[in-house]
Design brief:
The protein has 146 residues and is of the alpha/beta class. It is built from 5 helices and 6 strands.
Length: 146
């Protein structure tokens, strides 16, 4: 009979999520993405359980003002393949920033989440907006300083 500490495993019924707001203006893509991925995954909580989605929701504003270090703005490309032969596309960062600047952070964070059903469910907790306006004021998000 062991008398000691027990590891408490969180159930999905016991999860309480919070809302966070992140201002990405002037921040480096990777550094912001790691903080956001940690919040979405729930690793900042003492009750972290790997097989349960116990992370928080994150709202990112000013996504168009995020920066890359070095020459990544000119050299980095994003790869996409539809599954058909010869249907691969490479999109440079400048083109993606002009058309869909919010996708830069979305892709960076999604790459840091698990590649499973749970990871896809977690990625829906990320809300990225261009500009400083967002429709989530009713959730009373806390400001995250990075």
């Amino acid at each position: 009979m062991s008398t000691g500490q027990f590891t408490k495993s969180l159930r999905k019924e016991d999860v309480n999520t919070e809302w966070w707001i992140v201002d990405a203006s002037g921040q480096t893509v990777g550094r912001v993405a790691t903080k956001i991925a940690t919040l979405i995954r729930g690793k900042h909580k003492p009750s972290f359980t790997p097989h349960v989605d116990d992370g928080d929701c994150v709202v990112v504003i000013n996504a168009e003002k995020v920066v890359f270090t070095g020459k990544r703005e000119d050299k980095k490309t994003y790869f996409k393949h539809t599954g058909y032969h010869g249907s691969e596309t490479f999109t440079p960062v400048k083109e993606l920033r002009e058309k869909h600047p919010e996708r830069i952070l979305e892709r960076a964070v999604k790459g840091m989440l698990p590649k499973t059903k749970l990871g896809r469910k977690m990625s829906k907790k990320l809300k990225v907006y261009v500009g400083s306006e967002h429709p989530h004021e009713a959730q009373m998000p806390k400001k995250l300083e990075i």
